[in-house]
Amino acid sequence: MVEQHSCCSCCFSFIITMGLTALFFWLSLRVDQPKFYLESIYVPALNRSLPSTTKNDTVLFKIKFTNPNKDKGIKYDAVRVNISVFLSQNTTRLLSNSTAVAPFYQGRQKKAHKPSSASFVGNLTPAAGMDGKVYFRVDFATAVKYKILFWYTKRHGMWGGANVEINNGGVKVYPKPVRLGNEPPRIVNGAPEFRGGYRALLPLFLVAWIMRTH
Ligand SMILES: *[C@@H]1O[C@H](CO)[C@@H](O)[C@H](O)[C@H]1NC(C)=O
Ligand SMILES: *[C@@H]1O[C@H](CO)[C@@H](O)[C@H](O)[C@H]1NC(C)=O
Ligand SMILES: *[C@@H]1O[C@H](CO)[C@@H](O)[C@H](O)[C@H]1NC(C)=O
Ligand SMILES: *[C@@H]1O[C@H](CO)[C@@H](O)[C@H](O)[C@H]1NC(C)=O
Ligand SMILES: *[C@@H]1O[C@H](CO)[C@@H](O)[C@H](O)[C@H]1NC(C)=O
């Protein structure tokens, strides 16, 4: 009887230990994906303060990378970036495709700001049907590996993009970094400028909607 009891408690503590070990591994293998932002973009060809005779086919931009993981580093492959201009609300013309950022390693909970530039062909007069506004589409693609203790995970492909309105100064209208996420390449009137505040406003919309429907 006594023997059986000790065997049972031994078995029980074995199960607990295995459970905790499994939980520990699960927690340490879980990863949060990095976030990508278009921090700034400057298109001298659209800067109206410059004499229109100076032709400049450069686009200067900066991408921000954030690693949200408390205990995992991230190794990025080369980051490819496509820049396009909207010809209508749902069609774009590719201006440039470039390898914007060379492969790099980012420590845990770090931010990286990587400037880059690309050159394009053709001119950038506002397309008919865009109400005189100029919108760019910026897409990126890369792959990442996470560093867990001393090991790297396998590669995970990542991509995303955003639509950004460019003003007469040749810079983006929305002043804050724009998340390169899963926004479709389609201009919805007024939408891009309000993206940043959308989440904060959501509860208000909900309240307004509930009050309307009651
Ligand atoms: C646009 O051009 C003007 C005139 O050269 C210059 O002062 C300004 O800094 C330029 N804008 C940007 C964002 O560089
Ligand atoms: C284009 O504009 C950028 C940024 O102002 C400048 O660094 C570059 O020299 C210009 N290129 C030409 C050909 O004017
Ligand atoms: C693009 O938008 C036009 C009108 O703005 C619409 O007629 C057309 O079906 C759209 N095309 C696609 C592929 O969504
Ligand atoms: C990338 O751009 C270069 C030069 O503009 C062009 O020759 C090439 O076809 C483009 N590649 C793709 C996949 O669009
Ligand atoms: C850039 O455009 C080319 C041609 O459309 C496409 O094959 C490539 O996947 C695009 N790259 C990115 C980073 O979106």
From TrEMBL:
The keyword RNA-binding does not apply. It comes from the Eukaryota. It is found in: Membrane. The chain crosses the membrane at residues 7-27. The keyword S-adenosyl-L-methionine does not apply. GO terms for cellular component: plasma membrane; plasmodesma. GO terms for biological process: defense response to other organism. Keywords: Membrane, Transmembrane, Transmembrane helix. PANTHER family: NDR1-LIKE PROTEIN, OS05G0367900 PROTEIN. This is Late embryogenesis abundant protein LEA-2 subgroup domain-containing protein. It comes from Arachis hypogaea.
